[in-house]
Design brief:
Blueprint lengths: L1 E6 L10 H13 L1 E6 L9 E5 L2 E5 L8 H10 L6 E4 L4 H13 L2 E6 L6 H6 L1 H14 L4 E4 L2 H8 L10 E2 L6 H6 L4 H4 L7 E6 L8 H11 L4 E6 L5 H10 L6 E5 L4 H6 L2 E4 L8 H8 L4 E3 L5 H4 L2 E2 L5 H11 L14 H13 L9
Parallel strand pairs: 1-2, 1-5, 2-4, 5-6, 6-7, 7-8, 9-10, 9-12, 10-11, 12-13, 13-14
Antiparallel strand pairs: 3-4
Helix pairs in contact: 1-15, 2-3, 3-5, 9-14
């Protein structure tokens, strides 16, 4: 079976990345997997043969608005696929639909973002346009995979007249890795410096709402505590300034982009503050590590076992946790026992597109 996947995850070109590892597993299961990745010339990626079954190509576009054209042009030069699978119902979705129509292939759509959350559209004009594009794309999908029950339920609220029932397939997380990670001496030396170590793992972008964590940390005023922030993004400087203005700059540590596995073990509590999430991988990773999580009511936070708090009550929730716990997080309702089980479910969903009704 030949599958063509359209997406924007450039880490696929790093053969040692988790993304590349997943693609190799998918390709072996399918027999042949071609991947087109949206990228600009400045990203300096071309193409990669990840295995005998998997070949990845970069669009190398001059501008973002050329992604659709460049991806379609690439696709026309590749062997005809049986299924075109896209990683989002937005730019990737419209590109995949065009390619599927041109090549006479089935069209499989994946939805990782809760785009029907009111907060999604409020972030930008582009997101409002994406909501409209998603409605067009989803109505034309042979199969739809969503990553949480929340997204599936949100789709039911819209009169999209879908031709297929969305399949809920959560994102794979290597639970055993996070459960079994041991603290390295470098971080272990910091373990007793503070009574309470709070942690944020996030891209520092507006939709992640990391300012809420800083505001709540300052307001809670926990004795002998610190806030550790892992991640990079456009809001980093403004967040550092916010910490200083709130008088907690000495106790907020920006660690940059590092593997969070060790930090989950170091932390006493993880804060997840997103305005919206399709899934919430950080929540799963933290709870798998045994670290409790306070989260806004997004993605799989509630069903995974996080403590849910409204934005206005976030500081109160931190204070309540400081006084009464729990001190241990417990991951709930995670569906996969092994990576192989996840790969089988993922590939089977895409393969099922071949037997579905062709949508115009």
């Amino acid at each position: 079976m030949k599958v063509l996947q359209i997406g924007s995850d450039r880490s696929i070109f790093d053969e040692k990345s988790a993304s590349a590892s997943r693609m190799r597993a998918y390709g072996k299961r399918f027999g042949e997997l071609e991947i087109i990745v949206f990228s600009l010339r400045r990203h300096k990626v071309r193409e990669a043969r990840l295995s005998e079954y998997v070949h990845a190509y970069a669009t190398n576009s001059f501008f973002r608005f050329l992604y659709v054209w460049d991806a379609a042009w690439l696709a026309l030069k590749l062997p005809k696929p049986d299924v075109v699978s896209v990683q989002d119902p937005f730019e990737g979705g419209i590109t995949g639909w065009i390619i599927a129509r041109l090549r006479g292939a089935r069209f499989h759509v994946q939805v990782h973002t809760d785009f029907l959350s009111p907060e999604f559209a409020r972030i930008s004009f582009l997101n409002r346009v994406r909501v409209l594009i998603a409605g067009f794309v989803l109505r034309r999908a042979s199969r739809i995979r969503v990553v949480s029950e929340r997204i599936k339920d949100s789709l039911k609220t819209k009169n999209y007249k879908l031709k297929t029932e969305p399949t809920v397939l959560p994102i794979f997380v290597d639970v055993a890795k996070y459960r079994n990670t041991q603290l390295e001496p470098r971080l272990a030396a910091r373990e007793h410096l503070f009574r309470a170590k709070l942690l944020v793992v996030s891209r520092l972008e507006p939709e992640k709402n990391v300012g809420l964590a800083i505001h709540a940390f300052a307001k809670a005023a926990l004795e002998n505590s610190c806030l550790i922030i892992i991640g990079e993004g456009s809001e980093k400087k403004s967040l550092m300034k916010m910490a200083e203005e709130r008088g907690v700059g000495k106790w907020v540590f920006f660690e940059g982009q590092v593997d969070p596995a060790q930090y989950y073990k170091l932390a006493d509590l993880v804060l997840a503050t997103s305005l919206y999430e399709g899934y919430g991988m950080v929540i799963v990773e933290a709870l798998a590590s045994g670290t409790p999580v306070i989260s806004t009511d997004v993605g799989i936070a509630r069903e995974a076992g996080a403590i849910i708090a409204e934005e206005d009550d976030f500081a109160k929730a931190i204070t309540a946790w400081f006084e009464n716990g729990p001190r241990e997080g417990k991951l709930q309702n995670y569906p996969y026992k092994t990576f192989e089980e996840y790969v089988e479910a993922y590939c089977a969903d895409i393969e099922s597109s071949k037997n579905s009704i062709q949508i115009g």
